[in-house]
Model the fold of this input.
Amino acid sequence: MNSDCRRAMDRLELSRQERLAPHLRARLQDHLGDCPACRQEQQDTEPLDLFAGLTRGGLPAGVENYILGGLRVEEERRDDGVWSVASIWPALASLAAAAALVVVWALSGANPVAPGTDLWLEAHAMNDVVATVEDIRSPTAEILALSLPEPSGGRTEIILIVDGSMDL
Amino acid sequence: MTDEARLIAAAGRGDRNAFEKLVSGRQERVFWTAYQVVGHFEDARDVAQHVFIRLWQVLPRYRPGLSFDSWLHRITINLAIDACRRRRARPEVVGSEGSEPVAEPLTASPFQDLRQREVQRIFLRLARRLSPRQRAVFVLKEMNDLKTTEIAKIMKLTPSTVRNHLHQARKELRRGLARDYPEYMPKGSAGKETP
Done:
């Protein structure tokens, strides 16, 4: 696939959405007329209406209560002031430990560095993200899950995600 | 100020009634979008619950710029993609899709329900070959009918990258349909652009 083909494929979707200028649409059609590979690609990437209705339906039984139940717990937790520094300290400590582990892992060369890889570290506690570290340039597998013990006896799950994005 | 803006402002100040009105009618879309991206009932239920908890937490920080629905889509897709990655990180559940309960969006007629169930199963099976991002783009475009520019804003990708993910997803799903479910292949849809 050459640069003309790549451009044609990019414009194909714009053309389908009728968002392509007439002269560019004419160029696209010329290219499709001359390029069998792009004609095949065009057929292979036609929109699929078959699955269109799959996000339109009522909630399955129990899901609404499950969602509302989670909100109630969150409200109660907020009212009780559970989110003190002391309560998230184990997670923060675990996150620091995980970060240190990744650095050591990277420096040891146990896992080859993929230059420019973004690593995203999150610490989870009580099903919430309580701390994150971004933009650690590091080698790793795509995902590394760690379950670390907390002083209180519980465990904190640390998920390391390459190229993750949780920016809300 | 629109009704929605008033509800957002009130909910952001902690008004639970305003929050419930704001999310009323949006739970279905959030759940089904999460379900189609994650592909597992319990994970999708967790994602949906977490979406609304997250929304409740971050609503005071909401700034118009991205529409409220797009913002909700962003939270849903981010958490759903995150759930996909977590699932892949848990060795004990890899390959357990066959035993998962399948949720089925229902229609008004039993005949259509039957077909919808089958289509749902087909999608879950074929979409396993897609990356989480390809799957998310496909769900937003082909199921939620969003524009590629809107999807690009939601997922913080370039429109060109969105179109590329969409092409790859369609190609893979079409290939799977042709191979395993030829009776479901769309007829007469190819070649519209061909001169």
Q: What stands out?
A: DSSP finds five helices and four strands in chain A. Chain A touches chain B through 56 residues (CB under 8 Å). Residues 110 and 139 of chain A are 9 Å apart (CA to CA).
